[in-house]
Write a structure and sequence with these properties.
Order of helices and strands of chain B: EEEHEEHEHHHEHEHEEHHHH
Structural class of chain A: alpha/beta
Number of strands of chain A: 10
CATH architecture of chain A: 3-Layer(aba) Sandwich
Number of domains of chain A: 1
Order of helices and strands of chain A: EEEHEEEHHHEHEHEEHHH
CATH topology of chain A: Rossmann fold
Number of strands of chain B: 10
Strand order of the largest sheet of chain A: 6-7-8-3-9-10
Radius of gyration of chain B: 20 Å
CATH class of the domain at 1-29 and 36-71 and 188-236 in chain B: Alpha Beta
CATH superfamily of the domain at 1-29 and 36-71 and 188-236 in chain B: P-loop containing nucleotide triphosphate hydrolases
Helix content of chain B: 25-40%
Shape of chain B: globular
Helix content of chain A: 25-40%
Structural class of chain B: alpha/beta
Mean pLDDT of chain A: 90
CATH class of chain A: Alpha Beta
Strand order of the largest sheet of chain B: 6-7-8-3-9-10
Mean pLDDT of chain B: 94
CATH superfamily of chain A: P-loop containing nucleotide triphosphate hydrolases
Distance between the termini of chain A: 45 Å
Largest sheet of chain B: 6 strands, mixed
Largest interface: A-B, 37 and 38 residues
CATH architecture of the domain at 1-29 and 36-71 and 188-236 in chain B: 3-Layer(aba) Sandwich
Oligomer: heterodimer
Strand content of chain A: 15-25%
Number of helices of chain A: 9
Chain lengths: ~280, ~270
Amino acid sequence: MIDLVGLTYTYPGAPRPALRDIDLHVPAGQFCALVGPNLAGKSTLCYAIAGFIPGFYKGEVTGEIRVAGHDLVRTPLAQLAGQIGLVFANPFNQITGARFTVREELAFGLENLGVPREEMLPRIEEALQLTGLGELAERSPYALSGGQQQRLAIASVIVMRPQVLVLDEPTSQLDPVGTREVFETLDSLTKTGTTVVLAEHKLEWIAVHADRLLVLQEGQIARDGPPRQVLAEGGLEPLGIAATRYTQAARAAVERGLRPADRPMPVTLDDAIGYFAP
Amino acid sequence: MNIAVTDLTFTYPSGVQALRGVTLTLLSGEAVAIVGENGAGKTTLVKQFNGLLRPTSGSVTVGEWDTRSVSVAKLASRVGYVFQNPDDQLFERSVIKEASFGPKNLGRSEEASASAAAEALAMVGLEAEVNAHPYDLHLSQRKLLALAAVLAMHTPLIVLDEPTTGQDARGLARIGAIIRALKAERRTVITITHDIDFAAEHFERVIVMARGQVLAEGPAPDVLSRTDVLAEAEVEPPQMARLAHALGYSGTPLAPGDFVDMVERRTNETT
């Protein structure tokens, strides 16, 4: 679904490339998380996969970007409308505010594409259902909580039925309730076959929900594998990623001789309960 | 210098009643975290401390100043407020101008302002970016710049609204170190945060808010062990407390080290 081959990208006027020689294949339906310190290239990789490079951000691209059957290096952004979705950190960068209700907000993008009304209505219902917003359909977008607004931002993208959904730190402004809502929504989307690429700092959530974890460092992929495995292997601190508190506790227990050194490190709460159980 | 909040209510012009009878005293030199879900009234409360908002009824005093009769400019010499969204705060054309604006605006000399700004930028790790335009910085760096701009004012009280948002591991470590430094100087640090583990690890006192009211407040280990109150406020207990609870340990460890101490005690008891 996503194929990047030897992708190197430099923003206009930047002294160094933001992405360097990236090779990446993401199969359809995979939930792929991107982590790394700020400025490592997470947002840039999101923009590249979503068609914003070089469609919106100019600069210098070498290599190939193929997503959902499109050659993104050569396809104008407008031709991609709806096929690849991008969700930002701040939901109000996404929600038009031009409509009075959640349902009308979801109709906005479809109206712009000239989708017939009889096709619009079931697609809106589907997006409401997948994001759990059904009961809020007649509310004003401004009367929603942070988590609900971010779910609306996601709904306004998935109503276009994108094959690939890219999200750049969508939970950074949200409380724990909102964060849970967003991850549960992403789970139901990947079950329907949508490919999800998520840039995110919250490792405990990634470990539970994502299929794959990519660690970026200075524009390159430094680690790639199942999240629990990558996180349990450790050695990520030099890459600017802190171990979860559960891992930190286990390491301290090993150092004090309270647990043997040869057991796999816990990453999540459930892992840690098993690890520390007497 | 204490902050005293007495029977405070606040209603926005839209009619939304955001605070419904809050009474609190924040003591000089305390590190206090205010937690609660989005819309609980946390930001509305702290904006009363520097006069950005004024009570609808009740009162807020900062030292001997009643915020109803003191200007925001004057309150700014006592209460530094770092906005949640740095773009609501930053307006200068260079990083160094941004960081020296606050002290200059408080009437400090050019020289004193420049040195306070340079020191604050070094604390947040932006010393190499002094000539950059704030809007050329990454959002996480703009947040650190907004923090530096307030640090440079050397106010006795400092309010941090969601300081950890969007920060990576290095940014979090830096913010933790800054909070420790402020506490060592006996300055009052008040934070609003969704990151309950950050609150548990750095703040001695916790205030839990919901629906414009204070549900609970007190020493962090006491408040964060009250699972009923936390559930009502839609706040999850700290990760280590959840782990200890799941394993049937009594007590509320706030950080990995506290939890491992419990494991060690139990191991010693059983051997």
